[in-house]
Write a structure and sequence with these properties.
By secondary structure, this protein is α/β, with parallel strands linked by helices. It contains 10 helices and 16 strands. The strands form 4 sheets. The chain has an 8-stranded mixed β-sheet, with helices on both faces. The model has no long low-confidence stretch (mean pLDDT 97).
Length: 396
């Protein structure tokens, strides 16, 4: 049996264990930077498979290495994220979340269990490749500043620096059995915008005695859209969305202040910085011009993600060998964001998608929703595919 067929056989034979691990993680989710039990579980499973982990990276991160023959020849990295979201899970799956208000609604349970499966396969065939594969199980992908930044801070990409890094993410728009790739610009930066519009409250029947922050806030929200429509390069995707407005007045009460929260997305770092300055200046000046004041607080999020073209081309070829050319598809750009982008600023990186949809099974819900789930048949494919791409990237 050649190595490709051996890896496929291992991925299939290990599938039930991978599913069991995924279900354990799904039933026991933990929020960003609180993944203490998740990290212990990951470390325990690695040890069961004969792999010694390093715990405490970025507090709740886990690192491990699998060394093949001639381990110093080349090192590459594989990454999974472990945190869950503050969502109350709907449905009645046997592995439904046991933690109220916390759910693996973005598939990080899949990423972690799949990478555990990849680790087991690589460890079993370590005598058949050269080089070292570093495994990164990171915390906090869902919350600024992003666990990837802490993993980098704590040396996850050092001693030695890997030649590249790969990351996998579920994709509920793509049927299970399909894999998606995109070269170059792929995902957006993401910054959080918080505006506090301060006026002077009073009776709704006497607006002349007030400085109405609701009216000011309304003008600011509309005006800020001009930054996108009249300042952004129309060939560079960019989005400014406000999803939360709180002004605690009443039908006859003008409040003292209005709080607004939103997100700004861009796919160019120079434009990103310029736009944030424009947002701040416009909000402040408009409020002042209408007699009020606006305090602007910007929480800087993840940079935009660019998939290294050469690396992506190589691992795509490996994926075609593994699943067949007909099962590998091109991805469109996404204004979603991923802290995997931090890694791409250090080493060549590629972030690809694992199809998890199955309409016949009713598995169609999108990520970040209370009904999100996957077709677990994807876990027959995910671990072996990543193992094969890693071995091919090592030059074996």
């Amino acid at each position: 049996m050649d190595l490709l067929q051996k890896i496929k056989a291992l991925s299939t034979s290990n599938c039930q264990e991978t599913i069991a691990r995924r279900r354990h993680l799904h039933a026991n989710p933990e929020l960003s930077y609180q993944e203490y039990n998740t990290a212990k579980y990951v470390a325990q499973q690695l040890r069961l498979d004969g792999i010694e982990p390093v715990e405490g990276i970025a507090t709740t991160g886990v690192l491990a290495e699998i060394k093949g023959n001639n381990p110093g020849k080349k090192t590459i990295a594989l990454r999974a994220d472990m945190d869950a979201l503050p969502i109350q899970e709907a449905g009645d799956a046997l592995y439904k979340s046991k933690n109220p208000g916390v759910m693996h609604a973005c598939g990080h349970d899949v990423h972690t269990s799949s990478l555990l499966g990849t680790a087991k396969i690589l460890n079993e065939v370590r005598g058949q490749f050269e080089g070292t594969v570093r495994l990164l199980f990171q915390p906090g992908e869902e919350k600024n500043p992003g666990g990837a930044s802490y993993m980098i801070r704590d040396g996850a990409l050092e001693n030695p620096t890997p030649s590249c890094i790969m990351g996998q993410h579920v994709f509920p728009l793509l049927p299970a059995g399909k894999i998606g790739f995109r070269e170059g610009m792929y995902m957006a930066s993401a910054d959080e915008i918080y505006l506090k519009v301060i006026g002077k409250g009073g009776h709704g029947a006497a607006p002349d005695l007030c400085i109405d922050p609701i009216v000011i806030a309304s003008h600011i929200i509309i005006a800020l859209q001009q930054i996108i429509s009249r300042n952004a390069n129309p060939r560079q995707p960019s989005v400014l969305t406000f999803g939360n407005i709180v002004g605690l007045g009443a039908t006859n009460i003008i409040p003292n202040e209005v709080n607004i929260a939103g997100t700004f997305r861009a796919m160019n770092e120079e434009w990103r910085e310029s736009a944030l300055i424009k947002i701040t200046k416009m909000a402040e000046s408009m409020a002042e011009g209408m007699g009020g004041r606006c305090e602007v607080d910007i929480s800087k999020g993840y940079p935009y993600l660019e998939n290294n073209p050469d690396l992506t081309r190589r691992i795509r070829t490996a994926a075609e060998e593994y699943v067949g050319k007909e099962n590998v598809v091109d991805l469109d750009i996404s204004l979603g964001a991923e802290d995997f982008a931090y890694y791409s600023q250090i080493v060549p990186a590629s972030f690809y998608r694992l199809g998890t949809r199955n309409e016949s099974k009713g598995i169609t819900a999108y990520v970040h929703t209370p009904t999100f789930d996957i077709d677990e048949d994807a876990l027959k494919l995910g671990p072996g595919l990543m193992a094969w791409m890693a071995i091919k990237e090592l030059g074996c």
